[in-house]
C-alpha cells in the first residue's frame, strides 16, 4: 500500500543599487564618466530561482493557488474521496499566501477547485484550477506469490495495517505562529538510480494492482536513509506490503514515508533535521530486490516526489 515558507510566487527582480540608479538617471554623468557603458552588451539576468514544489496540474501532481495578502494564514480545504473536507497546506506571510494542493491519482481531467474559507463570516471562495490528462505507463513485476494471492491470515493483517496507516495519513499539524521555512525543496533520501517512477500502473504476477504511489530508488541493502526535510517521526513499523516503514510529518499535512527498510534508527516522537539518518535500505515487504520506496503526501493524497527535487 505504498501508497514546515515564503510565498511561492516568483520573487521580484532585485532593485538596482543606488549608484546604478544615479548613473541611469543622469545621462550626462553616464556619458562623461563611462562612455563604454553605452555600447556594452547587456548582462544576462540571473536565472529565476525555482519554486518547490513545482506545479504540475495532472493526476498525482500539485496545484499552487495564489491567495493574496492577509494578516493571518488563510484556511483552505479540498474534498476527499468521500466528499469530506480536507485541510490544505498554506504557505507564505502577510504579504502573500499560497495554497499547495495535492491532486489525487484518481482525479478526472477537467475543472477542479479548492475552497478558501472566509475569516469574517462571509461566503467561502472557490479557487479553480484545471486538471490535464496524463497516461502513466504500465509496469509488470514478478514477486512472491504470497504477496499477491493473500491467505486469510495475511488479508486480515493487511486490513489492520491499512486502517492503522489511514489514521497516520490523516495527521495535520499546524506550524507554530511566525515559523517559516525558506523552501520545500527536498533532498532525495538516498543516492541511486530511480528504478521505478510515480504513477506506474502496476501488474504483479499478471494481476493488476493499485498504481505506484511513490518513487523507487535502487540502492544496496544498508545504504543510509536521510530525512528529506525537517520532520517529526509519526509512525514506524514492519508492514506486510511496505516492509520496514517510517512516516514523517513535515507540517500542515505534508508527510513523507520510506519503505522496505532493513533497519529503523528512529522512534515515534523523534524530531529530525533535514539530512539526519533515520534508517537503512533493505528488501523487506513486497519487493523484487533492495531499494527504497519514497512517498510524499499532501492533503492525504500521494503526489509525485519528483516535484519536490531537482531533475535527475
What's the arrangement of secondary structure elements?
Elements: H1 18-25, H2 27-33, E1 62-68, E2 76-79, E3 85-87, E4 89-93, E5 96-102, E6 110-116, E7 125-131, E8 138-141, H3 152-169, E9 193-196, E10 201-204, E11 207-208, E12 215-218, E13 224-226, E14 231-239, E15 243-249, E16 255-264, E17 271-272, E18 277-281, E19 291-298, E20 301-303
Parallel strand pairs: 8-10
Antiparallel strand pairs: 1-5, 2-3, 2-6, 4-5, 6-7, 9-12, 10-11, 12-19, 13-18, 14-15, 14-17, 15-16, 16-18, 16-19, 19-20
CATH topology of the domain at 138-308: Glucose Permease (Domain IIA)
State the low-pLDDT regions, or none: 1-42, 44-49
The H/E string reads HHEEEEEEEEHEEEEEEEEEEEE
- Major sheet: 10 strands, antiparallel
Strand-pairing-aware structural class: mainly beta
| SS field, number of helical segments | 3
How many β-strands, per DSSP?
20
Radius of gyration: 23 Å
The level 1 CATH classification of the domain at 138-308 is Mainly Beta
Shape: globular
Q: Termini separation (Å)?
A: 26 Å
Mean pLDDT: 82
CATH architecture of the domain at 138-308: Distorted Sandwich
How much β-strand is present in the residues? 25-35%
Portion in helices = 10-25%
Summarize the structure in words.
Pfam families: Peptidase_M23, Peptidase_M23_N. This is Murein DD-endopeptidase MepM/ murein hydrolase activator NlpD. There is one protein chain. The chain is mainly beta and 312 residues long. The chain has a domain at 138-308: Distorted Sandwich (Glucose Permease (Domain IIA)). It has three helices and 20 strands. Strands 9, 12, 13, 14, 15, 16, 17, 18, 19 and 20 form a ten-stranded antiparallel beta sheet that branches. Strands 3-2-6-7 form a four-stranded antiparallel beta sheet, with no helix packed on it. The chain has a three-stranded antiparallel beta sheet with strand order 1-5-4, with no helix packed on it. The longest helix has 18 residues, at 152-169. The radius of gyration is 23 Å and the shape is globular. Mean pLDDT is 82; it is low at 1-42 and 44-49.
